[in-house]
Amino acid sequence: MLYHFLKPLIHLYFKIFFKKIYFTGLENLTQKKSIIFAVNHPTAFLDPIIIAANIQPSTHFMLRGDIFTSPVIKFLLNQIKTIPIFRARDGFSAVKNNYGTFEIVYEKLHQGENILILAEGIAKHEKKMRPIQKGAARMVFGAYEKYKDLDAIIIPVGVNYTNSDAFRSLMMVDFGPAIKVADYYSIHAENPRKAIKQLTDEISDRMYERIVHIDDDADAKFTEGLLAIHRHNMHHPVIPVVDNKNLELLEKEKQITETINQMEEAPKSKLKEKVIAYLGKLTSAGINDIGLAQKQRYSFMNTLILLIGLLPFCLGIIGNFLPLALGRWVANAKVSKIEFHSSIRFGVGMITYIFYFLILLIVFTSIWGWMGLLYAFLIPVFGRFSLFYRDFYLLWKEAKAVAGQEPDFVLDLQKERATLLAEVLRAKQ
Question: What would the mean pLDDT of 39-68 be, rounded to a whole number?
Answer without folding.
Answer: 88
